[in-house]
Amino acid sequence: MIPQENVRTIGNTVKQNNQKRNYKSMTKLKIKGEGNIIKGKLKQAGAKLTDDTLLDVKGKSQELLGRVQKKAGEIPAAVKKSHSGRCE
After folding, report:
1. Is residue 6 in some structural domain?
2. Is residue 7 part of a domain?
3. 34: how many CB neighbours lie within 10 A of its CB?
4. pLDDT tens for each residue of 42-68
5. What is the DSSP letter of 51?
6. Domain span holding position 54
7. Is 2 within the bounds of a domain?
8. Ramachandran bin of 2, using left for φ above 0, alpha for ψ from -120 to 50, beta for the remaining angles
9. Residue 49: exposed, middle, or buried by beta-carbon count in 10 A (0-12, 13-18, 19+)?
């Protein structure tokens, strides 16, 4: 039989690996947000050149989507930072 202490260690390791995966996916979300912000700004610049108001609105909405994605990607780091000083 496996000692109870080893089982807990294995369980904690699995939990830590899952937390790392979630953090990586949020980092990817932050990167996607940066990309959408850039795409939105480029659409807005193109709209100014062609005087296309619909393209300008689409660019603003894509930039807003990017800003939301970027903030959503920053949430896990902020939560981790705020909980690091607390005792359990």
Report:
1. no
2. no
3. 14
4. 999 999 999 999 999 999 999 999 999
5. T
6. 25-88
7. no
8. beta
9. exposed
- CA dist 24 and 67 (Å) reads 18
3-state per-residue secondary structure call for 4-16:
HHHHHHHHHHHHH
Instruction: State the amino acid at position 21 in one-letter form.
Output: R
pLDDT digits (tens, 9 = 90+) for 24-48: 666 888 999 999 999 999 999 999 9
For residue 16, what pLDDT is reported? 52
Number of independent structural domains in the chain: 1
**The two structure tokens encoding residue 65:** 């989507």
Structure tokens that stand for 81 in this block: 């930072």
CA distance 26 to 33: 10
Q: What is the DSSP letter of 85?
A: T
Q: Which amino acid is at 57?
A: V
10 in a structural domain = no
Residue 59 tokens, joined: 């660019």
Percent helix, strand, coil in the chain, to 5, is 90, 0, 10
